[in-house]
Write the structure tokens for this entry.
Amino acid sequence: MSVGEAVIQINDLRHTYLKGTPLQVEALKGVTMEVRRGESLGIIGRAGSGKSTTVQHFNGLIRPRQPGKVVVFGQDMSDPTFNVRQIRLKVGLVFQYPEAQLFERLVGDDVAFGPFKMGLALPEVKERVRWAMDMVGLPFEKFADRFTFSLSGGEARKAAIAGVLALRPEVLVLDESTSGVDPRGRKDLLADIRRFHDQEGLTIVFISSNMEDLASLVDRVYVLEDGRTVLEGSTAEVFAQTERLHAAGLGTPQITQVMHLLRQRGLAVDDRIVDVAKAEEEIWKTLSS
Ligand SMILES: Nc1ncnc2c1ncn2[C@@H]1O[C@H](COP(=O)(O)OP(=O)(O)OP(=O)(O)O)[C@@H](O)[C@H]1O
Ligand SMILES: [Mg+2]
């Protein structure tokens, strides 16, 4: 699936929480980014750098009120007369604490909630629920009739992702939503999302403080620092900027660090490598040449 035109464009966005009160926080001070159709995009930045605030503009959870522009699927989001319902179906957002997103008693009902609200016929709803639950690794037979409150943290996260996937969005935004899942489950989930992206062209926006996870999923990265976009590039390009990332309080995937150190010690390996399999190949190639 090739990458297409920009479906979300944000230009010099600013956002202040609790404006005009003593508690006001200038969360965004100039964020510029675009999300292109069919791409897998990552956003990184320290705690409080504005990642969640930025992506909440993608589906109208926060509407731009200050200067700065947000255009989503051609729609200017600052237009107060515009109803965001349509955009919410196109841009699915899974929150940082997806448990807060589950509100039905039974898991199956929870995943079905969105498709029901869309007015789909029952067989279609059922099919979507089954598909979305299988997709995230919560088999329908086993989990549909479970109480949502009885799910583990990781399962609750998966259920929340299923609820959003069931809307069949064009853009899926995952805001740290895989962090509570155990490593094996996370790896499976990331592989599923990646496969879904590759096969069906789902556009992905992934926020994670786990650089390994991020590198395994995304092709392009934006770095936020103190409410501003400070760096953008392919995953390899961004992770090659070790010093710049350190200045922003961030690290690089461990395998990239290993490659960097090997290179400093004189082994002529490419240190712009972000995944283990490629690193192994590169080291082997260099040693046997
Ligand atoms: N609802 C809110 N009310 C007031 N301030 C807020 C609110 N939400 C976020 N903030 C503040 O805005 C700034 C940016 O927060 P945001 O949640 O966007 O950062 P983040 O990059 O997602 O951080 P994290 O990695 O911790 O999730 C922070 O200073 C935060 O305290
Ligand atoms: Mg956040």
